[in-house]
Amino acid sequence: MLQHELNGAEDESEFDYDDGGPKGPSRWGELKEEWRACKTGEMQSPVDVSSRRMDVIPNSAGLTGNYKLSNATIVNRGHDVSLKWVGDAGSVRINGTDYDLQQCHWHSPSEHTVNGRRYDMELHMVHISRDPNVENRLAVIGLVFRIGQPDALLSKLSRGITSIAGTREEISVGVIDPGEIKIGGSRYYRYWGSLTVPPCTEGVLWIINEEV
């Protein structure tokens, strides 16, 4: 069930980002019964992450990546470009709980704002806990970017991303090391929210790296 929710609405024709349109964000919760949380939810993401509203937690307080090289594919889902690992890509430990890495995807511009500022791009690393006793099993690490120095992982994927532009084809990109994604900042924001696209499932642990 969780994996299905993570895939979300793979076909963007089911929704869009036109605020005033019939399939825009303000209408997502009306389009399907299983998407009702998009309208009625009380912990919806994205939000403005702010040191005035949230605790800023030092990285040493319990965020440890243990990622592995694994084969991966990329696909243009319309609302984002998604990189999915085929095998075991390792995990991240958050406050003693291990969450397995499933996929990551990029949004441009950023979905979250940081202290009121929207950045050029945002990366989401999506994880699921394999422990059935964990009440909320989804965890997403978010990193925001501004245009500047080339990103090592995006540079490696650039040819594949170009080849899927305008298509929904899923292609193999070979072995990808999630460790190339630099999640380790000195501080991060943490809050409970939701998936940012339908079905807008709540109970998602968000970790937003403070560093840009």
From TrEMBL:
InterPro entries: Alpha_CA_prokaryot-like, CA_dom, CA_dom_sf, Carbonic_anhydrase_a-class, Carbonic_anhydrase_a-class_CS
Acidic residues: bias regions: 8-19
Catalytic activity: hydrogencarbonate + H(+) = CO2 + H2O
EC number per UniProt: 4.2.1.1
Keywords: Lyase, Metal-binding, Zinc
PROSITE patterns in the cross-refs: ALPHA_CA_1, ALPHA_CA_2
Region (Disordered): 1-29
SUPFAM superfamilies documented for this protein: Carbonic anhydrase (SSF51069)
Entries under PANTHER family matching the protein: CARBONIC ANHYDRASE
Role according to the record: Reversible hydration of carbon dioxide.
UniProt protein name: Carbonic anhydrase
Species whose genome carries this gene: Escallonia herrerae
